[in-house]
Amino acid sequence: MLVVLGLFGRLITALTLRLARNFLVTRELSRSLEKPVRVLIPLLGVQAVWLSAPDDLMLIPLARRLTGVLIVFGFTWLILRALRGIEQIILLSNPVDIADNLRARRIQTQTRVLFRTISFFVMTIGLAAILMTFPAARQFGTSLLASAGLAGLAVGFAARPVLANLIAGVQLAITQPIRLDDVVIVENEWGRIEEITGTYVIVRIWDDRRLVVPLQYFIETPFQNWTRRSSSLIGTVFLWVDYSLPLEPLREELRRLCKEVPELWDGRVCVLQVTDTSEKSIQLRALVSSPDSSRNWDLRCHIRENLIGFIQRQYPQALPQLRADLSVGQKPPKSDTHVPEHVEPERQPPV
């Protein structure tokens, strides 16, 4: 009978997959539920046989309990696979490999975090249901609830990080301070949100390192999100030059350099300003904008290198210089000018 029910389960799942392959929802759900259904159908049939058998049959209570545990496990597995199938349907319906993927990233982030949180509770309920099938475990659970107090307080403190991360996951899914593929600055590291799990976030840093950050970090700690509303960004290039450098030719060169790379410059901002001065040189700041942070980095490097080259070629004397007075330490020339006698300086009248 077990073999017949197993073959029947395989036939049902194979027929369902064939009928559902042309539709995204039915195809993904059928693929996800295929293995749990193949396991559950024989188990349900075997349990029906055990329940119809006489109660005084040898080992029948043990067989019934063992099969019941396997059925609870199978239903838990079925629910988890169904959640996984629904999650996959939502992710496939909202791909992020497109130019304007802000809405898709928002939906994918909410889906991943919420479904992982729900899966955790499903596994917890399934484990509790399995334990409750054993009288000893049920009695232990009752005793534990009756003797709560310090023990419950200790368990609460021990589970605080897990519960905090679960609550933080729900907050992240609703408020979305971060989304998948967001560009962030975390712990002074530039990277992209690569993965969001139920307890932590994986940040892929620019040099392919991975930074593992707890979910609670993004609720309690300030961080930078460079793609919160849009991916466009304004970058800065600082140069220190001599006071003798004319600024207008340098502004013209900056505009030419920006127009030279339309794939890096989005045409919004291209400004050169004097932002600081010292006794030796002046500080210039060039502001340039790009569609995203990666291209803005390349644009800043392009502007910095070419502006330095332009100054070296056209105005080499305008590079930062050190000026020295060679007359320092020499005696001043004598003068016929009459030096007045020492005069007491005026003082403020008493108040």
Structure characterization notes:
With 351 residues, this protein is α+β, with helices and mostly antiparallel strands. It has 9 helices and 8 strands. The protein has helices spanning 2-20, 24-52, 60-93, 102-132, 135-146, 150-175, 217-220, 247-260, 293-314, and strands spanning 183-186, 189-196, 200-205, 210-214, 224-225, 233-241, 270-277, 282-290. It has a 5-stranded antiparallel β-sheet. Helix 2 packs antiparallel against helix 3 (60-93), helix 4 packs antiparallel against helix 6 (150-175) and helix 8 (247-260) crosses helix 9. The protein is elongated and about 130 Å long. The protein starts with a helix and ends in a 37-residue tail after the last helix. 19% of the residues are buried.
What attributes characterize this protein structure?
alpha+beta, 351 residues, five-stranded antiparallel beta sheet, three-stranded antiparallel beta sheet, 9 helices, single chain
Report the mean per-residue pLDDT as an integer.
79
Q: From N to C, what is the helix and strand string?
A: HHHHHHEEEEHEEHEEH
Structure classification: alpha+beta
Q: Extract low-pLDDT stretches.
A: 147-153
Question: What is the 3D shape?
Answer: elongated
Q: Helical content, roughly?
A: 40-55%
Strand order of the largest sheet: 4-3-2-1-5
Task: Please give the largest β-sheet.
Answer: 5 strands, antiparallel
Give the termini separation: 114 Å
Record field, number of beta strands: 8
Percent strand: 5-15%
